[in-house]
Design brief:
Keywords: Membrane, Transmembrane, Transmembrane helix. This is DUF3592 domain-containing protein. By secondary structure, the protein is α+β, with helices and mostly antiparallel strands. It contains 2 helices and 5 strands. A 5-stranded antiparallel β-sheet has the order 3-2-1-4-5. It is globular and about 65 Å long. It starts with a helix and ends with a helix.
Length: 130
């Protein structure tokens, strides 16, 4: 149980680090959501899609994948937020890297939940060892 808790805590810290790194090194640029990229597939029909963002920076057009996304349960490609304008944290030094959406906090909540589950698992594992 302690190993699982440590694993969850490490994953949560990596997710938080990625989001903060995108925000610190990126510049705030306006973009629009033009599509989705399948990020993961889980059990029982859960499929995670990351947003595909079109943005313009210094007269050039870039297409980036966001670290934030949407999850659907029926396996179809979502149509939610297509064409929506949003601000993203874009790093011009590495334009092929992922971007973070401003004002979307789904990744932070998932990381926080993983961190809480990890800490509780470590705590319960230590209690059971005594």
């Amino acid at each position: 149980m302690i190993f699982i808790g440590l694993f969850f805590c490490v994953i949560a810290l990596i997710l938080i680090f990625i989001k903060v790194w995108c925000m610190v090194t990126g510049k705030l640029v306006e973009g629009s959501i033009v599509g989705y990229v399948r990020g993961s597939k889980g059990l029982y029909g859960f499929v995670g899609y990351n947003y595909r963002i079109r943005l313009e920076y210094n007269g050039e057009i870039y297409y980036s994948t966001s670290i934030d996304g949407v999850t659907v349960t029926n396996g179809t490609i979502p149509k939610k937020n297509l064409g929506a304008k949003s601000f993203v944290y874009f790093n011009p030094k590495s334009p092929k890297s992922r971007v973070a959406l401003k004002g979307v906090h789904r990744l932070e909540w998932m990381a926080f939940l993983l961190l809480v589950i990890g800490v509780v698992s470590i705590w319960l594992g230590l209690i059971l060892l005594e």
